[in-house]
Amino acid sequence: MNIETVIRLFFSAVPTFSALVCFIILFMSYRSSVSASAPPTDIRLKKIMLCYLTVLAFTWFSVMCYFFFISFFIHIIPFYYFACLCVPISFYHFVYVITQDRDDKGFSPLHYLPPLLLSTWFLIWSLFIPFDVRLDLTENNNMAIVPEYGYFSLLSESTQIICFFFSFIYAILSINRVLNYCKKVKMLNKKTPRWFLIATLLITVQTISIIVSISFYSNHIVFTCVFFFSVLLLLGQIILIVFNIINRNYILLKEEVNNIPKTEIDETQPRANQELLLIRHDVHSNNKTILTKETFENVFLKNKLYTNPNLKITDLTDLLKTNRTYLSSFINNTYGMNFKNYTNHCRLKEVERLKRQPSSANIEFTEIVSKAGFGCYRSYLRSIKGENEK
Hints:
The chain is mostly helical. It has two domains: 3-256, Up-down Bundle (Rhopdopsin 7-helix transmembrane proteins), CATH 1.20.1070; 289-389, Arc Repressor Mutant, subunit A (Orthogonal Bundle).
């Protein structure tokens, strides 16, 4: 096996298996969300991203087949083109749901119609083309025109251009929505999820990188360098997205403003002013995810969630049906400390409570500390020091 074969195997196998691993991790999170009756939009986002990872994995699996099993690749070309076209659309679908506000219509499934029609057309037409002709076109990277099948040759040659066109258009649409989303989040006086903007920019740069690499296909050095760069971008993108979806590190505009009464909006005002009023409205007084101290403590204190040494703030978002940003802000405003300090504060109180119990007389103090939720005795000492410094 020469070095070129190893490089090609790496380029195609790593994205394939990375997408599959992320799919499995996200699917487990999706099952947990369904079991915990998580908010419908959270479940929907995970479904969309599972679809995105599926078509992404199939696309790169097809690339691997092209390099090593070209005879099999000939049979799956229509499905490969369908997957290629659906990758940017499914990502835009994901972006659309997060950035959707109260006046946006739902995402139209008609976006998926062109890929379906184009790939079906290609599939039906290819059934009437001899296998040797299709093999010859594919081995020549669709650059050869077979006179007897001129129109099919032109279609085969144009498929890559169509895929790149779709990728470019939907990348622009995604960036536009994300930039508008960032402006609206700022109007809410909330912190914009930077990962969301970074992930969108990554897919755009990745699209440009693939176009450049194909353009220099004959130059192995340039092709290898640029393609390697695009693979790294892809890995960074899917890891970034899956991590933040699982941790629910995003703000849904529709959730923030969907309960604002429309009677408060003057329909005679310009559209921009109406939108500004919606965003700047005190959503916390109307939002269905509003928290009170009593509600929070009924979940956090009565269930003694702080006794879990691995507790994270994202573990509470599904239970309280809110998002990480809002919950963090609530704890800071209500208790005057961040989530980590408040959790350790509760654990220190639990240590004092356990010490007073007669059953703890014959128990090592380190065991009491552990029962209170501290991962180790050193964590307990750090928390004591932090309490004393206040």
